[in-house]
Design brief:
By secondary structure, this protein is α+β, with helices and mostly antiparallel strands. Helix content is 36%, strand content 18%. Strands 2-12-11-3-10 form a 5-stranded mixed β-sheet. β13 and β14 form a beta hairpin.
């Protein structure tokens, strides 16, 4: 038995080494047939000794049955997005802001290619890949571990000491994963973040196969990679040959090294694929030179890159510079200038949003732009059509804003032939034929009819969305069917009682507002008869609808689409009032006194609850069993909000609390944490190496708290 164990271990070591050389270094040292022989021998041994199979074995990259769905995963550190810069002037402005926020501390930059793919978090426990998670909305992602394991350039096990190549004495002392007890402790959980992408050859091969099978080709590699990662069958994912470049490293939830460059070096030694086209730059001029160099050279690459990611190198300075709720201030994406192309505008269609806004959409002769086939672009509103002077049959220049959203930028008047026609903006809703209105002072034309079919559809989609009630499976196609009148069946068993005045031979829609979703179980038979539904799909949908009743007060308020009430405001209202009844009874003055709720927002909330149809909607939702009081799961309401209206700034290293923990402590008590000190700051919480923020607080006379005083203040009336 010992011989078998040793042979299996040796085979795994050899195969992992060959995978690394082939998929990461692109420098194989054995022929394919030799590699296949090693893998076959390992499979045979494991088949004879199944108790010796481990999750990090090379034979386990593709295993198991197709998934029924992906579990939600909450990131321990949010996967923030990056702010974009589209000009050299913007880049210089960002660098100056970093210098100012750093308070005179030295730092340099790391510039890396921005890979056009999808972000993934890889979580290793005791050196073994345990989870692969999509970015999602930055806070919540989907666990796609089985699919991640099929990507050959992702190691299933982190290289241990002795396997890593060490290039100098400093690296031997500082960068070995299992060098000492502290490193071993942090290695129990390692998070590596990267960008999964599809190489050009794989993309072209995939589209050839799809075309041969009569399927539409993918528009670009990014969409193909994203669609592939969400396949439920890992065998399909394995066939598509995704790849990855890794760009960020955490040990036990913390930055791994004093500089970003060291993290990239460590990942390379530990077996991860890191993009080789990167540079440490001392000045902004060096950064600009790197950006200009790759704007031209990017066409030589075997993958899509749409810009350069620039980061402050020193992690301590990053902490000083800080971040917003969405983006780090110490990093920016310089996007390469948009590529323009000309095409012909052949039609304009009009879409109706959930608020009734009418959006004109230009339809073009299909054209390839920055890797995507473009056929449509928003014209925004009637004023924009007039500003552009665009007509039907005009040739126009289109470009992609940030290489993502196509837009019309110019009419090519020199190509006019006299066949062009003026675009006449509609006077009546294209969905319900109601006369349109344009409120004074607004650029948007709207349909005022509350039950316009298009507005009903959009409200239901918004209510069911992931940021609101999270009713999975309730997509556009199904909502279209649920909200469309149906022909009456001939069989008596299919007849339903007719409402007075109902059109002969036509049944009303199954869903006419969001409250009808919670009565679909009573119409299960009719639901099953919908196109592409069936019993299993219907029951899954009904289960999702039932589960959504417990989504929580904040999600409900967001889903109700109260004007000016977004996700953050919905959470503030839920935390403050605790129930929808208390919120509905609040006056404009009471609402205005809530931190972050201004007068305009307070008036809009009061008007919403004063509307009779909204009162009826709340009553029906309540009768259906929808949770309308804050729950323990929503958490913040369980803590007295003694910091309500107070603004804090954190600086330096606290003795026992991590910065995220201190922020959560403050926010749970109603306070807000900002990244910079101003006259509006109420308290600065300072630890060791507090830096310029502490000096600024002392200059302005702002109270400074250490960790014990913060805890005491936060628990004074708890």
């Amino acid at each position: 038995m010992n011989n078998v164990v040793e042979e299996i271990a040796d085979l795994r070591r050899q195969i992992n080494d060959h995978d690394y050389r082939y998929y990461v270094l692109n420098a194989p040292i054995v022929a394919d047939v030799e590699y296949d022989t090693l893998l076959k021998r390992l499979r045979d041994l494991e088949a004879g000794h199944p108790h010796l199979i481990t999750p990090d074995s090379p034979t386990q990259r593709v295993s198991g049955q197709p998934a029924e769905g992906f579990a939600e995963y909450i990131h321990k550190r949010p996967m923030l997005s990056l702010d974009n810069s589209y000009s050299i002037d913007d880049l210089r402005g960002w660098a100056k802001r970093c210098e100012k926020l750093a308070g005179g501390r030295y730092f340099d930059y790391v510039a890396e290619l921005k890979i056009d793919g999808l972000s993934i978090s890889l979580i290793y426990e005791n050196g073994v890949l345990a989870q692969g998670v999509t970015r999602g909305d930055g806070v919540r992602g989907e666990a796609v571990t089985q699919n991640v394991r099929t990507i050959r350039s992702i190691p299933l096990r982190v290289k241990e000491e002795g396997e890593q190549e060490k290039t100098n004495e400093w690296e031997q002392k500082q960068c070995s994963l299992f060098e000492n007890e502290a490193a071993a402790e942090s290695s129990r959980e390692i998070e590596v973040r990267g960008e999964v992408y599809l190489p050009h050859e794989s993309f072209q091969q995939m589209n050839r196969e799809r075309t041969d099978q009569g399927q539409p080709p993918y528009a670009n590699p990014r969409n193909a990679a994203s669609g592939t990662m969400r396949q439920l069958d890992p065998n399909i994912v394995a066939e598509r040959k995704l790849d990855i470049f890794c760009y960020q490293l955490f040990f036990a939830g913390n930055e791994a090294f004093p500089t970003h460059a060291e993290s990239l070096q460590w990942m390379e030694r530990a077996g991860f694929k890191v993009n080789p086209h990167r540079r440490i730059c001392q000045t902004i001029d060096e950064l600009i030179a790197f950006c200009n160099e790759w704007e031209t050279k990017r066409n030589e690459l075997n993958y899509e890159t749409d810009g350069i990611v620039i980061k402050v190198n020193q992690t301590a300075v990053r902490e000083e510079i800080g971040a917003t709720s969405k983006s780090p201030r110490w990093a920016i994406a310089y996007k390469f200038p948009a590529r323009q192309i000309s095409t012909k505008l052949i039609d304009v269609i009009y879409q109706v949003g959930r608020t009734g806004a009418i959006t004109p959409v230009a339809v073009f002769e299909p054209v390839l732009l920055a890797g995507t086939t473009v056929v449509r672009a928003s014209l925004h509103n009637a004023d924009e059509i007039r500003r552009l002077g665009v007509r039907l049959n005009d040739y126009v220049f289109i470009e992609k804003s940030g290489e993502i959203i196509p837009q019309v930028v110019q009419v090519i008047t020199e190509r006019r032939t006299g066949e062009e026609q003026e675009i006449v903006f509609p006077t009546h809703c294209p969905e319900c034929q109601t006369e349109l209105i344009k409120p004074e002072g607004e650029a948007v034309t709207r349909c005022p009819k509350f039950d316009c079919p298009a507005k009903v559809r959009e409200r239901i989609l918004y209510f069911a969305s992931r940021r609101a009630m999270r009713i999975e499976g309730l997509g556009e196609a199904l909502v279209q069917q649920l909200t469309t009148p149906r022909p009456r069946r001939d069989k008596k068993s299919d007849l339903l009682p007719s409402d007075e005045g109902e059109q002969e031979g036509i049944l009303p829609p199954l869903v006419q507002d969001v409250t009808d979703l919670y009565h679909l179980a009573e119409k299960r038979g009719e639901l099953i008869e919908l196109e592409r539904m069936g019993e299993k799909s219907a029951d899954k949908l009904l289960e999702q609808i039932e589960t959504s009743k417990q989504a929580g007060l904040a999600r409900l308020l967001h889903g109700l689409d109260i004007r000016h009430v977004g996700e953050r405001t919905a959470q503030v209202l839920a935390n403050y009032f605790g129930s929808i009844d208390k919120l509905a009874a609040a006056s404009v003055e009471e609402l205005s006194n809530v931190y972050e709720i201004g007068t305009i927002m307070a008036v809009a909330i009061r008007e919403w609850f004063d509307t009779e149809r909204h009162q009826h909607l709340i009553a029906r939702l309540k009768k259906a069993g929808v949770q309308m009081e804050i729950t323990r799961a929503e958490g913040e309401a369980q803590t007295p909000r003694i910091f309500e209206g107070k603004q804090f700034v954190l600086t330096g290293t606290l003795p026992t609390m991590k910065r995220d923990d201190a922020k959560a402590f403050i926010e749970a008590r109603g306070g807000r944490v900002n990244s910079s000190v101003s006259k509006k700051t109420d308290f600065v919480v300072a630890g060791e190496e507090a830096g310029s923020k502490l000096a600024r607080a002392q200059e302005l006379g702002i109270p400074v708290l250490d960790e014990p005083r913060l805890l005491a203040l936060g628990q004074a009336t708890s």
